[in-house]
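Practice problem 4.
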């Protein structure tokens, strides 16, 4: 989708449709009253009769019937003016765009709500309109052989009144497009069936992106992984026929080789559970067990595109988790890269094994901060549902930055407790640690396991098991992968850039 901003009169717009916002109890004045007049008063009549109330996400679509060059006029409720937030704009615009595309709208003019709306800056308003449209219209149709019935929004034009407003609107629109397309890239990688998203294919995607965005990449093969002593990652991969890939993307946004931040994404391209096999119902969803890795790839691309002044490495230990004659077994003991031995209680707790070695690698690279993102535990979904991501860490200053980055992105993140006492559950009789602490507080004990490998490096773990996909179409989210927490990671890289 093309996003642009032009100066012009709403009355003269020649696109298929116009989208204007209306607040609760708003007086019709300015641009919207011009439209009303041109349409013979239909908007004001609807407002008077209560047909248009301005409630959040309420959409009223009327046809100009030749009174204006444009076809449809869509009036979008924005709720109470003082309650408008960037995320409300994203959601309302996403839903409105889906509605209009069903009406065969291919070009749309949007009149952004004024700068007084909810104390947001104009750039933010424009950015969130652009994000809402691109995210809300996302579709994953690659494997449908017949062209979908559905149309496509090709161009979204925002109107600016003055030169100043125009340049802010354009800047916000462009920024929103870059960010939303990154989220959609992550969604694409996650939605892809596991036979089309093997570790090899995931590594190739990462390679393409680094090559087109002036980043470096190293992809370690099994022998190199063995030489580094990554017995935990190797253990998970040994059941699969697909070769493992240890992917390291490197972006240098400043003139040193110091690594300011390591982003580590869980990269299980399919999680059957291994020998501790999962029930077959819903197992197909486990094609999305590389959502953390996808978020890292998408965030890395965007950090490079936006040229943030920070050095970041992105690490993904990619493999399948499958049962076979060579697979890891419950009771096995393996040795991780940092020398710690791990007793396997269940082969379905594979994510923490791959992450353990990825974290050790980041520490060996002397990363100053580590964020890992993982669809790690079903228990996370039980604790926080599908609404927010759980955050765990060993450093409150870094945690606060992550929470703030999430808040700015409109991606809910909730900090979880990390009391020492939880470590008890991970104690093994035969090894240094075991890979499952049982059912109680399953997400916390998983995080405590990772903490053993992060050691004294500032580290935050984001468990996205509940938030990485959705079965509902709502606001700017559509069924399937959500692309969470790509927008948070992009904000975080900016916030962590040394000044
Ligand atoms: N990938 C799963 C976690 C998951 C579950 C993600 C549901 C998304 C939706 C993970 O590898 C897993 O299987 N975890 C186990 C851990 C347990 C065996 C200690 C779980 O949560 O059941
Ligand atoms: Mn598992
Ligand atoms: Zn898993």
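Answer key:
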């Amino acid at each position: 989708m093309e996003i642009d901003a032009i100066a012009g009169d709403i009355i003269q717009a020649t696109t298929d449709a116009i989208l204007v916002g209306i607040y609760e109890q708003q007086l019709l004045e300015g641009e919207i009253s011009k439209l009303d007049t041109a349409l013979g008063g239909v908007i004001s009549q609807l407002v008077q009769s209560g047909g248009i109330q301005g409630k959040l996400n309420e959409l009223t679509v009327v046809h100009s019937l030749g009174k204006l060059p444009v076809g449809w006029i869509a009036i979008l409720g924005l709720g109470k003016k003082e309650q408008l937030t960037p995320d409300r704009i994203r959601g309302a615009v996403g839903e409105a765009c889906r509605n209009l595309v069903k009406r065969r709208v291919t070009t749309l003019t949007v009149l952004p709500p004024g700068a007084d709306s909810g104390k947001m800056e104009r750039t933010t308003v424009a950015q969130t309109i652009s994000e809402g449209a691109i995210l809300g219209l996302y579709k994953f149709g690659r494997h449908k052989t017949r062209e979908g019935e559905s149309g496509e929004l090709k161009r979204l034009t925002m109107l600016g009144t003055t030169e100043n407003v125009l340049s802010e609107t354009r800047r916000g629109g462009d920024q929103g497009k870059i960010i939303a397309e990154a989220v959609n890239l992550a969604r694409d990688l996650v939605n892809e069936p596991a036979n089309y998203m093997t570790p090899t294919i995931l590594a190739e995607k990462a390679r393409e992106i680094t090559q087109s965005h002036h980043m470096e990449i190293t992809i370690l093969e099994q022998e190199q992984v063995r030489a580094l002593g990554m017995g935990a990652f190797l253990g998970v991969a040994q059941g699969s026929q697909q070769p493992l890939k240890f992917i390291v993307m490197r972006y240098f946004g400043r003139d040193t080789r110091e690594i300011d931040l390591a982003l580590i994404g869980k990269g299980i391209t399919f999680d059957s559970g291994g020998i501790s096999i999962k029930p077959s119902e819903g197992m197909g969803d486990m094609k999305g067990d590389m959502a953390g890795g996808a978020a890292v790839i998408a965030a890395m691309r965007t950090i490079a595109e936006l040229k943030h002044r920070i050095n970041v490495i992105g690490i993904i230990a990619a493999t399948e988790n499958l049962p076979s004659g060579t697979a890891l077994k419950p009771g096995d003991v393996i040795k991780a890269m940092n020398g710690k031995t791990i007793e396997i209680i269940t082969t379905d707790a594979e994510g923490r094994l791959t992450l353990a070695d990825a974290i050790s690698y980041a520490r060996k690279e002397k990363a100053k901060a580590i964020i890992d993102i993982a669809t790690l535990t079903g228990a996370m979904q039980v604790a926080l549902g599908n609404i927010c991501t759980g955050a765990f860490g060993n450093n409150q200053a870094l945690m606060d930055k992550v929470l703030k980055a999430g808040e700015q992105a409109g991606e809910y993140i909730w900090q979880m407790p990390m009391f020492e006492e939880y470590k008890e559950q991970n104690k093994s009789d035969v090894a240094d640690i075991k890979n499952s602490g049982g059912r109680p507080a399953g997400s916390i004990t998983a995080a405590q396991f990772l903490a053993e490998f992060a050691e004294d490096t500032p580290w935050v773990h984001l468990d996205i098991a509940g938030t990485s996909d959705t079965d509902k179409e709502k606001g700017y989210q559509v069924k399937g992968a959500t692309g969470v927490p790509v927008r948070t990671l992009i904000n975080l890289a900016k916030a962590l850039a040394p000044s």
